[in-house]
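Re-run requested by the PI after the first attempt was lost when the workstation crashed. Everything re-entered from the original request form. Ligand of interest: iron/sulfur cluster.
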Amino acid sequence: MSSAVTGKALVGVSACLLGEEVRYNGAHKLDDFICGELARVVDLRPVCPEVDIGLGVPREPIQLTRSENGTRLVAVESGTDLTAAMESYAEAKVRELDAAGICGYVLKARSPSCGLGSVPIDGAGAGDGLFAATLRKLGGRLPTTEETNLEEAADREAFLARVLAYRRLRDLFDGGWKAADLVKHHTRQKLLLMAQSPDLYSQLGRLVAEAAGAEPADVENSYRLLTMEAFEQQATAERHANALEHMQGYLRKPASEADYAGLERKISSFRNGELDLAGVLADFRRLVKKHSVDYLSLQVYLEPQPAELLAGQEN
Ligand code: SF4
């Protein structure tokens, strides 16, 4: 499901990362990538759990600590236990975000509320902040990450690829669906799935082929699960090259010998690391349009890919 206003995927984000002055000391943690490139291609929904449960700004710092009742969220100086308030808020907020169509979440590392696997407990170890723990528990395969995991281009692109895949699943399933809708959706994903994971691509193909005789809820659950598993894998250059060669096969007849050979050279250059994916896809897009190759023109793989979107090259 996309944002009703812009058509972009909706992504939750710890509010301090957007520059909102909501931290315990009244400061923010503005993140240039999130406020810049990412904000251009998704709709960001800022959330500050600590402000939302009524803690003011500035406020007493809080921390995670272990007790015989499990991990607790407590104020550092007063010892006030905020666990129940945060857990109750988090459950309601995660359900609200799900109903709004959220397709991903970027969390502030090391925060006792927002941190995802990086939060010190009693000053040592690493666990989830209480809000993030609920998001992990109720969010299923929702793409989540901390801002510290979005420093490298490859990690940024992989996160956006997961968000876009999740959004396409919502578009298919959230409003009710029929077997024909699933076939149409899957047909459009095929080459991208092939690049992500040839094995899961095959499993998903079998699932779709057998969908008509199966329980719809089971099909939906399995299709969502396997798709997100595929997008959690690394789409290596070799896998992309294989998907590109598969796509090239559809142009053998309509394209001229020179254009066909040109594609072969580009794929080879891509495989050798001399050309990026966008450089090859541009030629495919041109030839698919020129020769009206219906099957390829439907492919999500020929839509702007995460690296192009983040670079602002959408055509
Ligand atoms: S890390 Fe989370 S709880 Fe802390 S200030 Fe940022 S948004 Fe608020």
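Saved to the shared folder this time. Residues 10-149 form one domain.
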